[in-house]
Write a structure and sequence with these properties.
alpha+beta
């Protein structure tokens, strides 16, 4: 096996492979990347047995073949080499990597390719397309609300479901919920699925905002294609909670605040928040919102900002993190908080309203 390649083109692909590979042990095949050189194309594969990555790049092949090498060391070699052509040669289990511009040879041990995990192939599966920018927005609006409790593994991913001609994505950790829905067109069929966050983070990081992303959900696997990349992942087993019961049918009251004002106030109040509890108090009255950190060993703080509200005074206790997370992904000038009672679900949404919202369950006002 012998070929040469452009360093900069290769380093981009191996960086993505590293995102997939989690085991850094050089003796494990899961720490290796599979390289297949044929027809002047190099196919690169990486897997952690649950999430998989496949890509292809053009290379100059002198001798076809396949092998696996330790991904971490391969990346370090690429990173330390100058831009330009690099030669790759395998003889028996030895791999020699030689930057043409430098008088240096790197020698690595390889592992036979037949020991590499079998990666599912997307053959004759029904893909549907979503604009890349919209799909990335759907991930951004939901991925932070998944549960971190591994005992509730079925809530550690984002729920994909079809609603007529729309794709809906939902996440929850039982104390908050995020929902977004976008039209994807007619004739799309797939069963509801719980998608692990790892593949979604890879898509969010590596997909361009241009063009479409192809998605297929079949046989407990999700396939995602964009550019020259194909990702796949096992779906999470289990029954996703009935999220529709959590979404209020009607909220009787609402107040609106400027996003910049709210973010700045929360940043200042956060200095005095008990980080174990993260409780903040929202006292809303006509024309003003007062944000308070309850008394703790650190002390306390409060700040008043203007808001648009004409109802009765009410105090609602919220987890500061559950307020800050949605603010990071809402890009409108104003934010609306909808509520009915102090201890019932609060809806956070942009103003004007869009195709997404976030639900937060209040905390007790006192310990």
């Amino acid at each position: 096996m012998k070929f040469s390649f452009d360093r900069d083109a290769m380093i981009k692909e191996i960086a993505i492979a590293q995102e997939i590979i989690t085991n850094k042990s050089p003796i494990s095949i899961l720490s290796n990347v599979l390289l297949i050189a044929e027809n002047n194309t190099l196919t690169i594969k990486a897997s952690d047995t649950s999430v998989n990555f496949i890509t292809q790049i053009p290379v100059d092949i002198l001798e076809e073949g396949r092998t696996t090498i330790f991904c971490d060391n391969f990346m370090k070699i690429l990173s330390s080499s100058p831009s330009g052509e690099i030669e790759f040669k395998q003889q028996d289990i030895k791999v020699t990597i030689k930057p043409v511009a430098k008088k240096v040879n790197f020698k690595l041990n390889s592992i036979a390719s037949d020991k590499f995990a079998e990666i599912p192939q997307a053959i004759d599966v029904p893909f549907f397309e979503v604009p890349a920018k919209e799909f990335k927005e759907m991930i951004q609006q939901t991925i932070f609300s998944v549960s971190e409790d591994q005992n509730r593994y079925f809530m550690t991913g984002v729920y994909f479901t079809k609603k007529e001609n729309n794709l809906a994505m939902v996440s929850t950790d039982a104390r908050r919920l995020s929902f977004i829905e976008k039209q994807i067109g007619e004739g799309i069929e797939f069963s509801p699925a719980i998608v692990p966050t790892k593949i979604l983070k890879c898509i969010l990081k590596n997909a361009s905002d241009e063009g479409n992303i192809q998605i297929a959900v079949v046989d407990k696997i999700i396939f995602v294609r964009f550019g020259n990349y194909e990702f796949s992942s096992k779906l999470l087993d289990g029954q996703f909670p009935n999220y529709q019961k959590v979404i209020p049918e009607h909220q009787s009251s609402a107040f609106m605040v400027n996003k910049v004002d709210l973010e700045a106030a929360l940043k200042r109040i956060d200095i005095m928040i008990d980080k174990k509890v993260c409780r903040i108090l929202f006292k809303v009255s006509p024309g003003s919102l007062t944000i308070t950190s309850p008394e703790s060993e650190l002390g306390t703080a409060d700040e008043e900002i203007p808001c648009r509200y004409d109802g009765e005074e009410i105090t609602i206790a919220l987890n500061s993190r559950y307020v800050n997370d949605p603010l990071k992904v809402i890009n409108t000038e104003n934010i609306v908080f909808e509520f009915t009672e102090a201890m019932k679900a609060v809806t956070i949404r942009p103003e004007p309203a869009a195709d997404f919202f976030h639900i937060v369950m209040p905390m007790n006002v006192t310990n």
